[in-house]
Write a structure and sequence with these properties.
The protein is mainly alpha-helical. The protein has a two-stranded antiparallel sheet. Helix 2 runs antiparallel to helix 3. This is Prefoldin subunit 4. Belongs to the prefoldin subunit beta family.
C-alpha cells in the first residue's frame, strides 16, 4: 500500500521527457555561448568605434593599421573604409546573435512550461 502511494507522487520519466530535458540542457549551453559571443561582439564594436573616432582626430595621411600580427602603413581613407566594413560586419553579426538568443530563450520557456507542468517541484531548470 505504501509503495502505491509513493509511486503516485513520483512522475515517471518517459523517453520524450528525457529528450525534452536533454534539449533544454543543449539550449542552455548554447545560450551561454551566444551570450559570450554577444559580449565579445559588443566589445569589438566599441573598439572599432573608438578607432574610428581616433582616426577622425588624426592629421596624418597614412596610419598604422594592424593586419594579422603586423602593422602596415595604410592610407587614412582606406583605413576608414575598412573600419566601416568591420563595424558593419560586426553589427550584423550582433543582430544575428541577438535573434538567436531570443529564439533560444523562447524555446527554453516552452520546454520549461512542458517540464514544470509534468514534474512540478521535482525538476529544477533554473540557474543558481
Amino acid at each position: 500500500m505504501q509503495q502505491a502511494g509513493s509511486s503516485a507522487s513520483e512522475t515517471e520519466v518517459t523517453w520524450e521527457d528525457q529528450q525534452n530535458i536533454n534539449k533544454f540542457g543543449r539550449l542552455n549551453n548554447r545560450l551561454h555561448e551566444v551570450e559570450d559571443e554577444i559580449k565579445i561582439a559588443k566589445e569589438t564594436n566599441e573598439s572599432l568605434e573608438d578607432a574610428g573616432n581616433e582616426l577622425i582626430l588624426t592629421d596624418e595621411d597614412t596610419v598604422r593599421f594592424q593586419i594579422g600580427e603586423v602593422f602596415a602603413h595604410v592610407p587614412k581613407e582606406e583605413v576608414e573604409s575598412r573600419i566601416e566594413e568591420m563595424t558593419e560586419k560586426t553589427s550584423k553579426n550582433l543582430v544575428k546573435l541577438e535573434e538567436e538568443k531570443e529564439s533560444i530563450v523562447a524555446q527554453m520557456a516552452a520546454l520549461k512550461k512542458i517540464l514544470y507542468g509534468k514534474f512540478k517541484d521535482s525538476i529544477n531548470l533554473e540557474e543558481d
